[in-house]
Amino acid sequence: MSVAAAIVEKAFFRRFVMSRVAGAGGGPVLEILASGVVFGCAHMIWGVVTGHWRTGLRVAAITGALGLALGVVFCCRTACCRPSSSPTS
Questions:
Q1: What is the pTM of this model?
Q2: Which of 16, 20, 40 is nearest to 8 (CA)?
């Protein structure tokens, strides 16, 4: 179950969100920020549903920071952060 959740999260938060931001003209920094914010907000829902807003905000901050770090790793492993290989004349 946790492996499936990790795969779905990776596919959604890294691939889908980051590619949508890139498609809209956002650069790597905006891709990483969007991924982290969406990741944090998605995990905050637990606190909202249970009525524990403070806990939800803490969870959002912690998982948002983790989402930022995972976004950086994903971005560095793909082409979004790599310098272009176009020759300079």
A1: 0.72
A2: 16
Q: What band does 76 get if pLDDT is binned at 50, 70 and 90? A: confident
Rg of the chain taking only CA atoms, in angstroms? 15
**pLDDT, tens digit (0-9, with 9 covering 90-100), for 14-73:** 788 888 898 898 888 998 999 899 988 888 888 888 888 898 899 999 989 988 988 888
Whether the CA torsion 23, 24, 29, 33 is positive or negative: it is: negative
The C-alpha atoms of residue 23 and residue 60 are separated, in whole angstroms, by 26
Residues with Cβ < 8 Å from 70, sequence gap 6 or more? Answer: 13, 14, 35, 39
Query: Amino acid identity, residue 45?
Result: I
